[in-house]
Specification:
By secondary structure, this protein is mainly α. The chain is built from five helices and no strands. Helix 2 crosses helix 3, helix 3 crosses helix 4 and helix 4 runs antiparallel to helix 5. The chain is globular.
Length: 154
């Protein structure tokens, strides 16, 4: 592995770990703090997009937050595993993201006012699947551009 690839690999794992830490941080908030954070976010979204946010409601915004953070995790985990394994492994990536969603819900059992939600795990996994799909789509586009510029990649 070249020095540049090692740096990219390390950077991708750092970003993946930061995303996981952010998810852990949000999950560690007790129910009151979590509600306050999401209501603040909801208020800001409401100011920006008004009627759409009103229709989504507070619960919809919370679900969208779950989906979005796991979309980022799926994308970043795909990047990290591709650098580490030198191959794209979508099922391994999805399995790791889904496993992290399970541990996230278990973690919430120990946070006052929070609960284990199967629905959240499903939303998290769907978000991760989107992130993985975006990564693979971008990978294919980049590979096709490289092929056109330099000929077949060996």
């Amino acid at each position: 592995m070249t020095k540049q690839k090692k740096i990219m690999c390390a950077a991708s794992w750092v970003l993946t770990a930061l995303c996981m830490a952010a998810i852990f941080f949000f999950s560690h908030q007790n129910s009151d703090a979590s509600a306050e954070i999401s209501m603040d976010f909801y208020s800001k979204i409401l100011e920006l997009i008004g009627r759409v946010a009103e229709r989504l409601g507070h619960d919809g915004i919370r679900t969208l937050a779950h989906f979005t953070e796991y979309t980022a995790l799926g994308f970043l985990m795909s990047t990290s595993l591709t650098f580490t394994c030198s191959r794209r492994r979508p099922w391994l990536t999805l399995g790791l993201c889904a496993a992290y969603a399970v541990t996230d819900e278990i973690h919430q059992l120990f946070v006052p006012g929070r609960a284990f939600q199967v629905k959240d795990m499903a939303v998290d996994s769907a978000g991760a699947l989107l992130g993985i799909s975006v990564f693979f789509l971008l990978s294919l586009i980049i590979l096709n551009i490289q092929k056109k510029k330099t000929g077949p990649i060996t």
